[in-house]
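debug: dumping io for the single-chain case to check the tokenizer round-trip. Nothing else runs in this session.
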Amino acid sequence: MDLSRRDPLATILAHGLSRRAALRRLGGGLAAALAAAGLGRRGAAAQEASPTPTYAVGVTAEILSRKEADAAPGYYLQVVRVTFAPEAIVAPHTHPGDTVTYQESGSHAITVLDGEAHLLRAGTAPPAAGPAGEPMELNREYTIAPGDALEFNAQTAHTSRNPTGEPAVLLEAQLREIGVPLTQFMGTPVP
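debug: decoded output
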């Protein structure tokens, strides 16, 4: 089957361009969104996904798409699939940039220790302006169910865990400072 007739990204990649160059040639934002969603290219997207170091025992992150952010120099904008194994726990930590999380399957629990985060429950409408969802209370554990979304910034210290016997899968849009680990555990100096 000739994918080049149905998939312009496949055509460009077949001619030896890097994935980044191919996405730029296709128009950047729209092409990146389509590639991140895996539309028309599920097999290739899975093969090109970049595994990243484990957040904690039983928690893994897979970078599905990444680009240097034109609007935020020194940062990557990336889409990441995070999988929590049953009973996995992540100690208190922050991330070097903003995060928007969507619970794809399973559930996990999160506790905000410091900073601000907002939770948008599945089926509720986001506000027209400002942060989506309701502010999360400090030191209260929230169970995040499929279809729920949350957002927080780099200053938000939190802990997460999967209290269930089933894997939990999250999709995240992350703005991450280049050259800094994806997760910074409390008390860990930033390089």
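debug: round-trip ok. Helices lie at 8-14, 19-26, 29-37, 42-48.
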